[in-house]
Amino acid sequence: MKLVDRMKDEELGTAILYNFTKGYGKPVPLELYDVVLPLLYHDFIREHVLTYTSLQECIYQCIQNEKHFKQHLLEKIEDDKTMTSKALGVAMIQHILKFEIVDTVMCGVALPTDILDLNEAIWLGKLFQDVSLEDFMTLLKQEDTHIVVLQSASVGKDVDLSKIASLGQVTMYEDTKPSEIKGRILGADIVITNKNEMTKEVLEGLKHLKLICLFATGTNNVDLEYCRDHGIKVANVKDYSTKTVAQHTLALLMHLVEKNVAYDHFVKSKAYCQSQCFSYFDDVFHDVASMTWGIVGLGHIGRQVAGIAKAMGAKVQYYSTSGQNATSDYQQVDFETLLKTSDIISIHAPLNEKTHYLFNEEALRKMKPTAYLINVGRGGIIEEKALVKVLNEGHLAGVGLDVFEHEPLLEDDVLYSIQDMNKVIFTPHIAWGSIEARQRCVDEVYKNILAFLKGEERNIVNNE
């Protein structure tokens, strides 16, 4: 049943608070009840709350609809506290709600009752499930923060950015050319980007800029030293795509190992129809379980891939590019040993001084001629000119690249000169980008900004 009037008495308030608790689905911190009635007594929220999938989106639309929404709602929260207390008292007396301490916090719990469902209240409870009162009040009390998103399209047009849009005065650009960056972030308090180069030249003179957030884990495109010296915090996102990248690593490898393109063509071309045998084995493939899988970079993603490799029966060994990631779960070897003894090598390392052109011609030639090389780390880790040279000489069984020295590739990119394209598979830097991972990435950036606005540090990478 929908709410059809706004009669502010304890009976209606009790029904609203009960249904909110029902929608919340777990014990409700007592202080959270103070915002429920002011929200549902607000005409715009009551009429539209059922159309929103996040509380942040709902609040953002209210701000757009009503100039002084934040101020008015904060006033009503104070004004309606007495009514809320009376309604909670009635709910307790009528055995509609009970109150108990959960993790040192007094909470309300819904009891069985014949009160009719109030759809708006139930839905509001659902919207609050992952939003604390502190987070909600931060959204209301903060001064309008000027946020500029330079590359919204880098996380896809199918993700929900409404949480970020609720954090202040937000300007979004699908993409931004290098020459456009500085002009677009003049006056910005917070900048969100992915791969834009945030150099000293770009950042100089930006007196308002306090935070740079990345839709990414890697920070090599930001001058961290300049930011640190000028009080600009830089926040990245972590672990949002670990399983996704590991999944793509396996997909690239199996595409090469299983020779599925050739076999698929054999069937679809009707060559199979002319065959005298039910099976066709002209393109040899091997068990991964018979191979040694070498991993370059044993961070979160590298460990996830190692787990997959082990589950498939491969012998796993690794080389730590930083020297900091060590585990007794797998055999650690030096780089030369990894190159000479691995049947599969997958790269999961960041691009830095130690890893730039780590796989140069000398390194590539040390690999087994029958080995497979997969790169889902960063493009500059492999010297692509050298890679093309050794491939065209017949060295390596297959190569899978999701990252490149130039992104996007150049029209005359050296990779297009590979003579046998059946030995390679290229994907356009998508290993991280399942819809679920991209939404997690956006949500993590939102949490980083919200923490910053509350005076907290979350995923800051350039502290002293």
TrEMBL record:
<dbReference type="Pfam" id="PF20131">
    <property type="entry name" value="MC3"/>
</dbReference>
<dbReference type="InterPro" id="IPR006139">
    <property type="entry name" value="D-isomer_2_OHA_DH_cat_dom"/>
</dbReference>
<dbReference type="InterPro" id="IPR036291">
    <property type="entry name" value="NAD(P)-bd_dom_sf"/>
</dbReference>
<keyword id="KW-0560">Oxidoreductase</keyword>
<protein>
    <submittedName>
        <fullName>D-2-hydroxyacid dehydrogenase</fullName>
    </submittedName>
</protein>
<dbReference type="InterPro" id="IPR045390">
    <property type="entry name" value="ABC-3C_MC3"/>
</dbReference>
<dbReference type="InterPro" id="IPR050418">
    <property type="entry name" value="D-iso_2-hydroxyacid_DH_PdxB"/>
</dbReference>
<dbReference type="InterPro" id="IPR006140">
    <property type="entry name" value="D-isomer_DH_NAD-bd"/>
</dbReference>
<dbReference type="Pfam" id="PF00389">
    <property type="entry name" value="2-Hacid_dh"/>
</dbReference>
<feature type="domain" description="D-isomer specific 2-hydroxyacid dehydrogenase NAD-binding">
    <location>
        <begin position="251"/>
        <end position="431"/>
    </location>
</feature>
<keyword id="KW-0520">NAD</keyword>
<dbReference type="InterPro" id="IPR029753">
    <property type="entry name" value="D-isomer_DH_CS"/>
</dbReference>
<feature type="domain" description="D-isomer specific 2-hydroxyacid dehydrogenase catalytic">
    <location>
        <begin position="164"/>
        <end position="462"/>
    </location>
</feature>
<dbReference type="Pfam" id="PF02826">
    <property type="entry name" value="2-Hacid_dh_C"/>
</dbReference>
<comment type="similarity">
    <text>Belongs to the D-isomer specific 2-hydroxyacid dehydrogenase family.</text>
</comment>
